[in-house]
Specification:
The protein has 361 residues and is α/β, with parallel strands linked by helices. The chain has a domain at 5-192 and 229-255 and 300-317: NAD(P)-binding Rossmann-like Domain (Rossmann fold). Helix content is 43%, strand content 16%. The strands form three sheets. Strands 3-2-1-4-5-6-10 form a seven-stranded parallel beta sheet, with helices on both faces. Strands 7-9-11 form a three-stranded mixed beta sheet. Strands 8-12 form a two-stranded parallel ribbon. Helix 1 links the parallel strand 1 and strand 2. The termini are far apart. The protein binds nicotinamide-adenine-dinucleotide (NAD) and thymidine-5'-diphosphate.
Length: 361
């Protein structure tokens, strides 16, 4: 066995940040399996050029034949599973893809990995890891004064997205308990940073602000999310892979709870300073309150004590430093934004926000 890992979903937002850092830090070779759905984008990996340490494979985590072949050929010492359908609003419009990839796809991946792992010699069997990247949304919604989610908080997913992720987490747990597969599960809070697809709140607001479009706030904007800069999430995953105990779950979060409206006002202030509107008015004038998301979770908050105490991980960025880096990245990468906001993206925005009474396409 060599220093190769198999990453799934490595052309998406978090996966691409993970792959880039892995290769740039010289941590070994990466086989990157991605289906290239609307959310997967090879432009995210363009800075790797023709680096031989990265092998991209276009395919589906549900394709057992392909998985068997890749595992046998590349003999990875770990698999890191990012591949998923990831947008809550899309899961409300149409849950089927979420069940297919997040539940059935993860099942096929686990089956293939179990077969591969069973064939390893004793020493490699012990050191092999299957790391499943999951979300804090599986724990459901918190009231204002509830304590933050810990690894033992009861699962209570509320959206088709979070229910599908919860199902995949349970499968991973069962494969450890039943077959002894050395799994690791990470449940992380909301990420933001470079390559974030502009259907999600932060990149959507930056994109719309710069294009003179409404900044749509669902409901009253008082819902709270716990934000973590994507590179801090990737560092946490590397740490869990390196030192996490097989079969364990680690919550990852930035201790950065913010109401949505505050996040949007912060973005407007940063943009007012860095790229003022031609008319001198604030971008905050574009804020528009729209119809709420169905079943909208009120608050997420992660208690990251375990990963900090046991593995010594802590985020490097505060919300203030991370959000400024993010705005700078989007201002400097308008070509990337223009490429991903054509075609399918326009259809999504048209359908989703027209229902909320906003013309944004
Ligand atoms: P994303 O939607 O940006 O990227 C998902 C990637 O998976 C895309 O490249 C897509 O092409 C690929 N993919 C989808 N279906 C596939 C399939 N069947 N086979 C192979 N590849 C497939 O998502 P993201 O925001 O980067 O999230 C990555 C993971 O992290 C997900 O599992 C998500 O649940 C989890 N997560 C995300 C956040 C967040 O804030 N974005 C927070 C916590 C956890
Ligand atoms: P999102 O980025 O979709 O992440 P998640 O739903 O996984 O937390 O949304 C973050 C928060 O922002 C969530 O409370 C919903 C809200 N939101 C809006 O108010 N307007 C929008 O247009 C979007 C996409 C999200």
């Amino acid at each position: 066995m060599n220093k190769t890992i198999l990453v799934t979903g490595g052309a998406g937002f978090i996966g691409s940040n993970f792959v880039l850092a892995w290769v740039k830090q010289g941590l070994g070779n990466v086989i990157n399996l991605d289906k290239l759905t609307y959310a997967g984008n090879l432009d995210n990996l363009v800075s790797l050029g023709r680096d031989a340490r990265h092998v991209f494979v276009h395919g589906d985590i549900g394709d057992r034949h392909l998985l068997d072949k890749l595992l046998a050929e590349h003999q990875p010492y770990a698999v890191v599973n990012f591949a998923a359908e990831s947008h809550v609003d899309r899961s409300i419009h149409g849950p089927q893809d979420f069940i297919q990839t997040n539940v059935v796809g993860t099942f096929h991946l686990l089956e293939a990995v179990r077969g591969y792992w069973n064939g390893l010699d004793t020493e490699h069997k012990k050191t092999f890891r299957f790391l499943h990247v999951s979300t804090d949304e599986v724990y459901g919604s918190l009231a204002k004064d509830d304590p933050a989610f810990t690894e033992t908080t009861q699962y209570a997913p509320n959206s088709p997205y979070s229910a599908s992720k919860a199902a995949s987490d349970h499968l991973v747990r069962a494969y450890h308990h039943t077959y002894g597969l050395p799994t690791l599960t990470t449940n992380c809070s909301n990420n933001y940073g470079p390559h974030h697809f502009p259907e999600k709140l932060i990149p959507l607001v930056i994109h719309n602000a710069l294009n003179g479009k409404p900044l749509p706030i669902y409901g009253n904007g008082q819902q709270i999310r716990d934000w973590l800069y994507v590179e801090d999430h990737c560092a946490a995953i590397r740490r869990v892979l390196e030192a996490g105990k097989a079969g364990e779950v680690y919550n990852i979060g930035g201790w950065n709870e913010k109401p949505n409206i505050e996040v949007v006002r912060t973005l407007c202030r940063l943009l007012d300073r860095k790229k003022p509107r031609a008319d001198g008015h604030s971008y905050a004038e574009q804020i528009t309150f729209v119809e709420d998301r169905l079943g909208h979770d009120q608050r997420y908050a992660i208690d990251a004590t375990k990963i900090s105490r046991e593995l010594g991980w802590k985020p490097v960025e505060t919300f203030e430093t991370g959000i400024e880096k993010t705005v700078d990245w989007f201002l400097q990468n308008q070509d990337w934004v223009n490429n991903v906001t054509s075609g399918e993206y326009r259809n999504w925005v048209q359908t989703h926000y027209t229902e909320r009474g906003e013309e944004m396409a």
